[in-house]
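We include the pair:
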Amino acid sequence: MGRSVITLSHDEGAQALFAFEDELRDHVRDSIDSLRDFGIGTIAILSGDNPKSVSLLAQKIGVETAIGGLRPDDKLAWVQERQANGERVVMVGDGINDAPVMTAADAAVSFSGATGLARQSSDFVILGSDFTSLADVFDLASQTGRIIKQNLLWAAGYNLLAVPAAALGLVPPWAAAIGMSVSSLLVVTNAMRLRGARRTR
């Protein structure tokens, strides 16, 4: 049940049946849970494979929405419907048939082992084929956004205080120059924390 079946036959009829089942990559379910922790509301599997196989896979990894037997234009229509409702869609794919949908998605992710067309249609390419890296991408993106906001707030706050003070003569020019250099150094140092975060993964 839930397997793709191929029949070997000749003029006298069927001679053998082969049942194939997709092998789950390590820690896929944990990765799905991590993606939900980042606030992703809907995780869906859109596939051209046998619907029963897709449904069985979804049950194993804890995904509620799973649709099989889809053509590329069916996947595209599904994504565009979500976008029309104001949702942002991130598409993960690795096949030739995924390319049109990945182009239409708000963001697209593929792996280095994906087909060339899928990689070209992606906004991000994850080196290797480890699905757990997808959660790391969202984590790093979240940290990057947080640090950008911190740096913007710091730079804006310093300029609002230091520049008028220097213009009014409340702060000597040399002190304002040193303060600007220190401010820039703090911004760069704060941004470099992302390199440390990447090394720990």
